[in-house]
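Cross-check.
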Amino acid sequence: MKRYQDPAWTDGMAVSLDYNYAMADFVGRVGLTSQELQALNPRLSSLHEDLSARREDGRLGFFKLPYQTEILEEVQKLAKPLFEWCWDLVVLGIGGSALGTQALYQALCHPQHNRLSPARRQHKCGLHILDNVDPDYCYGVLDGLDLRRVAVNVISKSGGTAETLAQFLFLYQLLKGRIGEDRLRQRLILTTDPEKGVLRRLAEREGFKTLPVPPEVGGRYSVLSAVGLLPAVVAGINADELLAGARYMDVRLKTAVPEENLAYRLAALFYLFATAKSRPMLVFMPYARSLASLGDWFCQLWAESLGKAHDLEGRLVHAGSTPVRALGTTDQHSQLQLYIEGPPDKLITFVEVANFQHRVEIPALWGDQDDLGYLGCRSFNELLQTEYTATAFNLMRAGRPNLTIKVPEINPFTLGQLFMLLETATVAAGFLFNVNPLDQPGVEGGKKTTYGLMGRPGFEAYQQEFASSPPLREEYLVK
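Predicted model, tokenized:
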């Protein structure tokens, strides 16, 4: 029996929420009262009905992903032959096509995974995510790889992402010169829309291997689809357990009464602090280095889903709150001063990890020196936990509300829970803010202008609009 099939183990791995230090009982009038939270209960009941209906009719496709085990079987089938020859998988993608994969990789792979010998990696592949067209960065990553042993996963839901297509064209030409076009075709996997887009058309014409991104799943909600699953499996991450964790959280959320629903309560806290308490800055601060990229993933999820000019009735509202990723203990020494004494416009959300895979003891040396001696016979683990406790307490004492998502340990099961929890909370917050959490109209303008400036047919008007804009003025340039 796999461990995630043992109810005692799964219940011991349940993610939870502690929002004591966000309440008025602890931080005074800047915090929330029980009455303010209870006043949202009717809206949470309506929210639950709305999400249940949209889940059933398929409008919230990410809810289906943990249950679509057939796509995992397809992923595993494609990954299996790679282990016979491939040393490194290069992922080409940006935004939602990269951040979830980066979160998986950082949280669940050895920090030196890409530098370990194949034997120590159990003959799984190194993983390299090119999420930027910075030429020095892309060149540098590829320059360190044996391209004869590289496979490439090109990820773009629409198939039209300019940055990803540019990387694809460059890498295709590079590999074609090294290994030949016939062999190259067997080393490419395109993850894209199942029916439309240039990548889909190209795959059908050239015979490239493909995986689908469900049309009803937006990129930032796609980490549990083939977008994240193929890189995870190739790198040796237990994707079965990852999906099991997401299912476990989904069942918890579906069966909880609205006022006790973990995702709804998290959404309510974020929403009320952004609106009723005028705290539009949402700091997401894991106390584990391996969860730093989870913070980056969450920041995109929250910002792109909720930062909207208009509400569902078309009224101008400029909704949303601004997510900021911080890292404990690192940012105690860089950002905490601002959080404690700066503008009172922030809600801090910690992610606390109870148990780590390793325990690192601190030697008892120079015990006669008080500034050193007190650390002896303690551990890194105890110091990290104490730092989190002290930071949360001192924020509370300064009247700075904060809350904590508690994670028993970092493993595929708990990470699957976090993905499902935060995605559901984000959609729930969209209901509370009265905006569409599934679109991203604000970024389309930049894309279209880029297409025009780069000469893409059909976008000439955007190039002309740019050309006709006022020229830059010399007096505003400092040389």
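Residues 62-237 form a domain with the Rossmann fold fold (CATH 3.40.50.10490). The chain is about 45% helix and 15% strand. Passed to J.P. for a second look.
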